[in-house]
Amino acid sequence: MPELALEQLRRWPDVEAPELQAHDATDAYLLDETGLDGYGPDEIVVIGDRYGALTLGLLAAGATGVRTHQDGASGELALAANAERAGLEGYASLPLDESLLQGARLVLLQLPRGLDALDEVAGAVARWAHPSVRLVAGGRVKHMSLAQNEVLARHFDSVEAGLARQKSRLLRASGPRPTASAWPRRARIAELDLDVLAHGAAFGGTALDPGSRLLLQHLDRLPAAGTAVDLGCGTGLLAATLARRAPGLRVVATDQSAAAVASARATAAANGLDIEVVRADAMSAFDDGAVDLVLLNPPFHIGATVHAGIARKLMADAARALRPGGVLWTVWNSHLQYAPDLRRLVGSTEQVARDRRFTVTRSVRTLPASGSAR
């Protein structure tokens, strides 16, 4: 049986940097507290495994038929790459649905930051897993709250918190109470004349975030035809607005988040709009020079860490996919000062708007493509 050293795991193709690790103390705590005795093949499920530490740790310990769900496409790709390097196999990456959880008797969960995401996951486990299922959820103490216990208590009879270890803590839930799913949620965005549907882990939920609002207030000079991409689409509101304003455009919404992609598809369907929705890491679904327009509202966190690496990765891959003369519209938190990065990675960049919190820029692809982020 191959041995697994968590320190050897990589984050690639996600952003890599000396201060960013592919595992944390919560992974080790969950693995140390998980006994495999009594669990057969296909009875263990992992949810929220960032780069494969939990899934591969279980396989190295002798588990078989591990089913896993990662919201991020880059996490799935990192898991596959780490598994190949470690010589480990015997897992399946699946969506957050019955195929993932049917018959599961043990679920290991890296706690998501958002309570809505936790509610959707906990509800899915209670609905589809075996009645004897044990859910063991771990997180960093500084990001945990009693509200997480309360969310779990909506779906399980028993919720117990364990002792902290290396600034991580585990929550154990049992006694599932199955209920109908409340996801995705739906709301009306009156100012856009659009309905939005959102799964628990989708950025922004059913609201229009203020950065996107500022971008849409100043978005003009749209091409009459060609391909436009809402990169990091979230619930798909930018893509939906593009499809309304420029009916001659082929509009594609793309995000690495499975929850975002499901939300964007539901938003497009609810509004009767013809939008292609793709789950992909950055712009990996597009060839070089294939795109005329990209809209980008980049995240500035990687997990819990404030880091500019993910925004720069998205900018660079947008530049690669844009045709010469193609345009990237970007909105960003003003204190991050992304204009020099945009000029270096994309080309000529002008500030279009700025308010107390956000800056909107328009960049024209005037530089050679800066290389694929794939």
Automatic annotation (TrEMBL):
CDD domains: AdoMet_MTases. Signal peptide: none annotated. Residues 194-361 form the Methyltransferase small domain. Residues 8-173 form the RlmG N-terminal domain. Pfam families: MTS, RLMG_N. Keywords: Cytoplasm, Methyltransferase, rRNA processing, Transferase. The keyword Cytoplasm applies. InterPro entries: DNA_methylase_N6_adenine_CS, RlmG_N, RsmC/RlmG, SAM-dependent_MTases_sf, Small_mtfrase_dom. SUPFAM superfamilies: S-adenosyl-L-methionine-dependent methyltransferases. GO terms for biological process: methylation; rRNA processing. One of its GO terms (molecular function) is nucleic acid binding. The keyword DNA damage does not apply. PANTHER family: RIBOSOMAL RNA LARGE SUBUNIT METHYLTRANSFERASE G (PTHR47816:SF5), RIBOSOMAL RNA SMALL SUBUNIT METHYLTRANSFERASE C (PTHR47816). This is 16S RNA G1207 methylase RsmC.
